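TICKET: design request
STATUS: open
ATTACHED STRUCTURE:
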């Protein structure tokens, strides 16, 4: 798999009103969305790998 790009967040401000523990809600929502992003990224990497494999098919056959 392709290496995941490094991202540094210097400042993040999130505002929302919820019933209950704000930190827990933020953590749940963040995890949900970062997991969705990670899946999309992994799928993109898999497609790129498959494309490279398909493009190299036949390389080295002397044609």
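STATUS: resolved
RESOLUTION: sequence designed for all positions
ATTACHED SEQUENCE:
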């Amino acid at each position: 798999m392709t290496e995941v790009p490094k991202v540094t967040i210097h400042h993040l401000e999130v505002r929302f009103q919820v019933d209950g523990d704000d930190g827990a809600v933020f953590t749940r929502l963040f995890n949900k969305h970062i997991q969705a992003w990670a899946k999309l990224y992994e799928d993109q990497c898999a497609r790129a790998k498959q494309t490279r494999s398909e493009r190299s098919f036949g390389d080295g056959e002397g044609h």
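CLOSING REMARK: Residues 12 and 44 are 26 Å apart (CA to CA). The two ends are 30 Å apart (CA to CA).
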